[in-house]
Design a protein that fits this description.
GO molecular function, one term: serine-type endopeptidase activity
Order of helices and strands: HEEHEEEEEEEEEEEEHEHHEHEHHEHEH
Number of domains: 2
Radius of gyration: 22 Å
GO biological process, one term: proteolysis
Distance between the termini: 52 Å
Strand order of the largest sheet: 12-13-15-14-16-17-18-19
Protein name: Peptidase S9 prolyl oligopeptidase catalytic domain-containing protein
Strand content: 25-35%
Organism: Lentzea guizhouensis
Keywords: Hydrolase
């Protein structure tokens, strides 16, 4: 068993990588989308997950598991649930991650080569499987934390010293105090979140202007680590005297299948109430100034920022980053159509349908080459909301890579929220 190191932890808890080269075509008429979808056995066999098509939709929807022998012969182990990934060997058996059946919205589970769900009912969410010399390690998102468990036939054994992300400021940059929050939704569902206060301030110095940042996915989460990224983030706002609320509403990972599945065909519904309940709590506690509230988000978070402004006029500004304005058009023209249809498949859930209600100033930003959420979504919202500002970044996709564009986005957002 290899020793756990910081570098290994960072690698295991990072998002699924985009392939840096085209993987080999090992199975005729099937496609290996990621080099990480091949696991090597010491005797030379390879466990391989393939797609039915090189396109995400339908390829990701119809994966299959195979074993390739050293001589190149192939044994098919049958179709897997959608979004199968991270195969590992344990002895002569294969285990992998895939979406929890029968829906596309419900989060990941661990399966064996007979396609049995080994984590059914687990109140947390597996996010990765890691090959070792012994039992594979399962990385698990649980609430705001990350744990490591050995994959065993009985109850999964938690590894002592599971990962608690580093919350320290890099290079000794002054950082805002970060708190873990726990509260209940309107229907009694337990929720968690983070609060980041302005630099060199405490709760006693409130109330503060407050920006709520909604995470993407929605099958994602805010973990208790240092909140400073190229997307305008909590510590970025802390430097400007602004507090930040980072909610984990239903639909995200960290609390099991049922929690994640709760937004199936109900995107923006109870999910929005979970967020607003947390804002109300911070206002009640004297942390947030009710007259200086704003909201921001990227991808699904961008959708939620736009959607929130159709539900209420309490926000003084909203940043809509790579967000969804029209679900039917996204399903028809985005690269993840089937997955988007599992969230919101009608105009009823679209900000564009209720755009006449929006009075909040909007800063809409989008990459020109985004194939996940096409640029059309930003253009539709901008055209429907008079006075909104649209900024298009040439050469950028769903996540920005250009340093100059990242800096421009941060500075543009700083100016946009300056009057809170």
């Amino acid at each position: 068993m290899r020793e756990l190191t910081d570098a290994m932890v960072a690698d295991w808890t990072s998002p699924r990588p985009t392939p840096h080269r085209k993987p080999p075509q090992l199975i005729p008429h099937r496609h290996v989308a990621h080099t990480t979808d091949i696991a090597h056995h010491p005797d030379g066999r390879r466990a391989v997950i393939t797609w039915s098509s090189p396109k995400i939709d339908p390829g990701l929807i119809h994966p299959a598991l195979h074993v390739v022998a050293p001589d190149g012969s192939v044994t098919d182990l049958g179709p897997t649930p959608p979004d199968a990934r991270s195969p590992v060997w344990w002895g002569d058996r294969i285990f992998y991650l895939a979406l929890t059946p029968p829906h596309l919205q419900g989060g990941l589970a661990v399966f064996d080569q007979d396609h049995r769900n080994l984590t059914e009912g687990m109140p947390a969410c597996p996010t990765d499987l890691v090959q070792t010399d012994g039992a594979p390690i399962m990385v698990v998102a649980t609430g705001l934390d990350t744990e490591f468990h050995r994959l065993t036939e009985g109850p999964f054994a938690k590894i002592k010293g599971s990962h608690r992300p580093d919350r320290r400021a890099p290079l000794d940059i002054p950082a805002g105090i970060q708190e873990r929050l726990h509260y209940q939704a309107r229907d009694g569902l337990d929720l968690d979140a983070l609060l980041v206060l302005p630099t060199n301030r405490t709760r006693a110095d409130g109330p503060f202007p407050l920006v709520t940042i909604v995470h993407g996915g929605p099958y994602d989460r805010w973990a208790d680590d240092f909140q400073l990224t190229w997307v305008p983030s909590a510590q970025w706002f802390a430097q400007q005297g602004i507090a930040t609320f980072l909610p984990n509403p239903r639909g995200g990972l960290g609390r099991g299948h049922e929690f994640a599945h709760a937004v199936y065909k109900r995107v923006g519904q109870e999910e929005w109430h979970d967020i607003e309940t947390g804002i109300d709590l911070l206002v009640h506690q004297g942390v947030a100034d009710p007259g200086r509230l704003a909201i921001a988000g990227w991808s699904h978070g961008g959708f939620m920022a736009a959607w929130a402004t159709t539900r209420t006029d309490r926000f003084k500004a909203a940043l809509v980053g790579a967000g969804i304005a029209d679900w039917p058009k996204l399903i028809a023209r985005g690269e993840n159509g089937a997955f988007e249809a599992a969230l919101g498949d009608s105009a009823e859930h679209s900000p564009i349908t209720c755009a006449d209600r929006i009075t909040t100033p909007l800063l809409i930003v989008h990459g020109a080459d985004d194939t996940n959420v096409p640029l059309e979504q930003a253009e539709l919202l901008h055209a429907a909301v008079p006075g909104s500002e649209l900024v298009i970044y040439p050469g950028e996709g769903h996540s920005f890579t250009g340093r100059a564009n990242k800096i421009d986005l941060l500075n543009r957002t700083r100016r946009f929220f300056a009057d809170l």
